[in-house]
UniProtKB/TrEMBL annotation:
<dbReference type="InterPro" id="IPR025996">
    <property type="entry name" value="MT1864/Rv1816-like_C"/>
</dbReference>
<dbReference type="InterPro" id="IPR001647">
    <property type="entry name" value="HTH_TetR"/>
</dbReference>
<feature type="domain" description="HTH tetR-type">
    <location>
        <begin position="32"/>
        <end position="92"/>
    </location>
</feature>
<keyword id="KW-0804">Transcription</keyword>
<feature type="DNA-binding region" description="H-T-H motif">
    <location>
        <begin position="55"/>
        <end position="74"/>
    </location>
</feature>
<keyword id="KW-0805">Transcription regulation</keyword>
<keyword id="KW-0238">DNA-binding</keyword>
<dbReference type="Pfam" id="PF13305">
    <property type="entry name" value="TetR_C_33"/>
</dbReference>
<dbReference type="InterPro" id="IPR050109">
    <property type="entry name" value="HTH-type_TetR-like_transc_reg"/>
</dbReference>
<dbReference type="InterPro" id="IPR036271">
    <property type="entry name" value="Tet_transcr_reg_TetR-rel_C_sf"/>
</dbReference>
<protein>
    <submittedName>
        <fullName>TetR/AcrR family transcriptional regulator</fullName>
    </submittedName>
</protein>
<dbReference type="InterPro" id="IPR009057">
    <property type="entry name" value="Homeodomain-like_sf"/>
</dbReference>
<dbReference type="Pfam" id="PF00440">
    <property type="entry name" value="TetR_N"/>
</dbReference>
Length: 265
């Protein structure tokens, strides 16, 4: 997880905090549905105080209504936070899907390295444009907040997109490279994890491919997904400062290395 002190310092490079943001939210057109106005105000509060300090009272003040009026739309802070999280996951997932679709439209092919790179760079574009929301999803957990089941489907969109690229490559006959690290599943708990993930593949629409997906495919895809999100988080939070300052080309190299390890065409 990212260090909160570093996050606050790093995000100053992305957001101008102060009266300007507050004024912008207050000036939302009066005809905008109240629920949307509340969510817009809550997103602005995220940039000002972070998710842990998000309060219904502050959001109500931004919208210009009483706290009681706010509770007509969201029963508590956690419900509001959940809505922000689901919306952010969906928006990120849409951005990744669009990145893959763009490759498909350009050359009719998204199962290989080009689609993989496009997906990862799309995730970075979204994260660097909306750093507070990215760190809401992948940064330090909010103490006391327990994400409900309804967030799971939205949270799975990026990994489902990556799995789809790997599965399509396997179905097209592209296998893992010779000499790929053989995953040791002698640990019963780890073997159970992989079995659970294989069952999840069926639930996500990969029923035909799931039995043929190697443990190494699962391992490498999850490792790559984690590395993708971690690399973006490190850039946003400023952990690469004075080292890797060229975020996009660096991430592209990471993605290409991942694609080669996965044997993508």
């Amino acid at each position: 997880m990212v260090n909160s002190v570093h996050v606050v310092k790093a995000l100053s490079a992305y957001t101008q905090v102060g009266a300007g943001l507050r004024t912008e939210v207050v000036m939302v057109a009066s005809e905008t549905p109240m629920r949307e106005r509340i969510l817009a105000a809550a997103r602005t509060e995220l940039t000002l105080v972070g998710p842990a300090a998000l309060s219904m009272r502050a959001v109500a003040r931004e919208v210009g209504v009483t706290v009681g009026a706010l509770y007509r739309y969201f029963k508590n802070r956690d419900e509001l936070l959940t809505e922000l999280i689901v919306e952010a996951y969906e928006s990120l997932g849409e951005a990744v899907d669009a990145g893959i679709a763009q490759v498909w439209e350009a050359n009719g092919e998204a199962r290989g390295t080009s689609g993989w790179v496009a997906a990862g760079l799309a995730a970075r574009r979204w994260g660097t444009a909306r750093p507070h929301e990215f760190l809401l999803l992948y940064g330090t957990p909010v103490i006391g907040y327990d994400a409900p089941q309804r967030t799971i489907g939205s949270a799975s969109r990026v990994i489902v997109a990556l799995v789809g690229i790997v599965v399509a490559a396997r179905e097209a006959g592209f296998a893992l490279p010779a000499g790929t690290y053989a995953v040791d599943t002698s640990d019963a708990a780890l073997a159970e994890d992989f079995a659970r993930i294989r069952a999840w593949l069926v639930e996500m629409g990969f029923a035909a491919a799931a039995p043929r997906v190697a443990v190494e495919d699962i391992f490498l895809t999850i490792r790559s997904w984690t590395e993708l999100l971690g690399t973006i988080s490190f850039e946003i939070a400023g952990h690469y400062r004075n080292s890797v300052e060229s975020g996009r080309p660096y991430l592209e190299q990471v993605l290409r290395a991942q694609a080669r390890a996965l044997g993508l065409p």
